Write a sequence for this structure.
């Protein structure tokens, strides 16, 4: 029995990936959360950066989507706090007022992408699928490197494994 070919342009998450959505504008937050939930993601929302930071302390996320201009803690400050805890989690920053300074900060802090509003929901779904794949690869890399370290393989083996993942 042959399996049917799958359309790779619209991928569904293999398992329910957990997404943190930090957005202070309810008219953006609700439809985006509904769209991502409908695509199979477990979406937890935060109405500002401070709430998002508190959620990060209690939950592990596969992807984080954050507005830049938010009360209490803006998206760049939130990204900085995220990177102190996790260097690999994909972070998508969105903004209604794109500017060079915040874009440069986002790149410097390792944001996956910097998106201007309005958000195209289909593009966001494709981006989430890519981000989840990147997160899973990063986790596998960490697990593989931990196994290599415990197994006592040589430095060249470890470097080769890192190069393969990169």
């Amino acid at each position: 029995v042959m399996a049917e070919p799958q359309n790779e342009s619209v991928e569904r998450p293999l398992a329910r990936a957990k997404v943190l959505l930090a957005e202070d504008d309810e008219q953006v937050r609700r439809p985006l959360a509904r769209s991502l939930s409908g695509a199979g993601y477990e979406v937890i929302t935060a109405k500002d950066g401070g709430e998002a930071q508190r959620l990060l302390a209690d939950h592990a996320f596969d992807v984080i989507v954050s507005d830049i201009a938010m009360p209490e803690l803006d998206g760049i400050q939130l990204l900085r706090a995220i990177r102190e805890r996790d260097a690999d989690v994909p972070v998508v920053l969105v903004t209604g007022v794109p500017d060079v300074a915040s874009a440069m900060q986002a790149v410097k802090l390792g944001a996956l992408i910097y998106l201007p509003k309005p958000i195209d929901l289909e593009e966001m779904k494709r981006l989430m699928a890519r981000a989840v794949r990147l997160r899973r690869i990063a986790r596998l890399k960490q697990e593989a490197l931990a196994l290599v370290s415990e197994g006592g393989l040589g430095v060249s083996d470890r470097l080769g494994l890192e190069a393969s993942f990169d």
In short: The first strand starts at residue 18 and ends at 22. The two ends are 36 Å apart (CA to CA). Confidence is low (pLDDT under 50) at residues 1-14.
